[in-house]
Design goal:
Length: 334
């Protein structure tokens, strides 16, 4: 385990007193800009986070669990939060949420600010972080759980699914249904690392059976039913012989279904559709959509359980890596 960096270590590296380093990190006006910048850069590059809990509380933590997610606009991360909240409900700990907008630099700032208040644990979505963020997570003297993804190098505890395998599994299923002219529509590319991994796994799964994507649309904006409808319309105009479309999210696949219903296109007779996440919004549609259940609530529950276990075990608990297995629902659209 990486030795926790203390304020005195930052001061030593910067060649200033501990008091000067503290004042520099607080932005005190009597510290020169040159000194402040040097101290801040050393703190950042070594993953040191100032402690904003004052005086006698400085060695303690607050009963909050920081939860850092890319967005609350979709239905995906609220289910993770529901799982975390359900487990923490009967404990002294309560979740507090930070939003990164799929931006690694914003994630760095959000995590730095949250850690400065010394929470009792931190849950963060994903494995891809800036180098400064990784160092902060390594230095954090609290349980840190990265969630949603296991395709990478976790800092410590990790709970999620393999998005590469999820993409490969869907490719195998689609090919087993006899489809050959296959398209992919994805959003938040390339900021959403997990969606990109599903795309890569999907392409790999097709290639393993000698097939290539017939068309693709990697859209940089957010998922929405309207966007799914528009991109489906464009792809089907370009490719009248298209047989199947795999979407990076259920929200987009619902938009695809809306386009087909409006244009009199039979699903799956004329074109098959499949999404990802098994969102609640699929319930009640005129057609049961093919999708993959990504275990979102279970991931939140396990992350909270690990934080409670690690907190009880103090330093006696090693890193946990828990890989959940997503399940595909064939529905009636494939």
């Amino acid at each position: 385990m990486t030795k926790k960096l203390l304020l005195k270590d930052v001061a030593l590296l910067a060649g200033v007193s501990e008091m000067t380093a503290s004042r520099a990190l607080r932005g005190a006006p009597d510290v020169s800009q040159k000194t402040r910048i040097r101290v801040e850069e050393i703190a950042r590059s070594h993953g040191y986070v100032p402690n904003r809990i004052a005086g006698s509380l400085s060695s303690q933590s607050v009963n909050l669990v920081a939860v850092v997610v890319p967005s609350l606009n979709s239905f995906v991360f609220p289910e993770v939060l529901s799982g975390i909240s359900a487990i923490l409900k009967d404990s002294p700990l309560k979740p507090v949420v930070g939003i990164t907008g799929y931006d690694v630099e914003e994630e760095e700032e959000v995590i730095r600010e949250m850690l400065s208040w010394r929470p009792s644990g931190l849950v963060v979505a994903g494995l891809e972080h800036s180098e400064a963020t990784r160092k902060m997570l390594q230095q954090a003297d609290i349980p840190v759980v990265e969630v949603m993804d296991v395709d990478g190098d976790p800092v410590g505890h990790c709970v999620g699914i393999s998005h590469l395998e999820a993409g490969r599994d869907m490719a195998e299923l689609i090919l087993s249904r006899g489809y050959e002219q296959i398209g992919f529509i994805g959003t938040k590319m390339p900021q959403d690392f997990r969606a990109r991994k599903r795309f890569d796994g999907f392409v790999d799964g097709l290639a393993a059976q000698g097939m290539n994507l017939h068309d693709q649309e990697l859209y940089s904006g957010d998922s929405s039913i309207e966007t799914g409808r528009q991109l489906t319309s464009s792809m089907m105009r370009r490719n009248p012989d298209l047989e199947c479309i795999y979407y990076s999210s259920d929200v987009m696949s619902v938009g695809g279904l809306m386009h087909c219903l409006a244009e009199g296109v039979s699903v799956p007779g004329d074109v098959a559709l499949a999404g990802f996440n098994n969102l609640q919004l699929l319930k009640g549609l005129p057609l049961e959509m093919a999708t993959t259940d990504a275990c979102r609530r279970q991931i939140g529950e396990r992350a909270a359980q690990i934080i409670l276990q690690a907190r009880a075990a103090k330093s006696d608990m090693g890193p946990v890596l828990e890989v959940l297995r997503p399940t595909i629902s064939l529905g009636a659209s494939l």
